[in-house]
Amino acid sequence: MTVSNTNAPSALYISTASAVYRLIAAVADWNDARLTRKALSRLTDRELNDIGLVRGDIDSVARR
Q1: pLDDT number for residue 3
Q2: I want to staple 33 with a disulfide (CB 3.0 to 4.6 A). Which of 17, 21, 48, 62 is the partner?
Q3: pLDDT tens-digit profile, the chain (64 residues)
Q4: How far apart are CA 33 and CA 41, in angstroms?
Q5: What was the pLDDT predicted at 2?
Q6: How far apart are CA 59 and CA 20, in angstroms?
Q7: Among positive and negative, which fits the CA dihedral 9, 11, 17, 22?
């Protein structure tokens, strides 16, 4: 008697779909951080001070 695993293709599909979703989410997060860094970098020191930041805070704020 041979037992076949009919769940293998669907498990592979789910695993692949999950990996693609995680990749897309990582790229979206990276792009959001990039845009935040870019916008904050365009502000003057006075404008950054108005929102409670200094130039050195930009990278850590963008990573949140």
Answers
A1: 59
A2: 62
A3: 565 555 566 878 889 999 999 999 999 999 999 999 999 999 999 999 999 999 999 999 998 8
A4: 12
A5: 62
A6: 27
A7: negative
Residue (of 28, 29, 38) closest to 59 by Cα position: 38
Domain chopping of the chain, boundaries: 29-64
pTM of the model: 0.72
DSSP characters for 7-38?
THHHHHHHHHHHHHHHHHHHHHHHHHHHHHHH
* Both structure tokens of 21: 């979703």
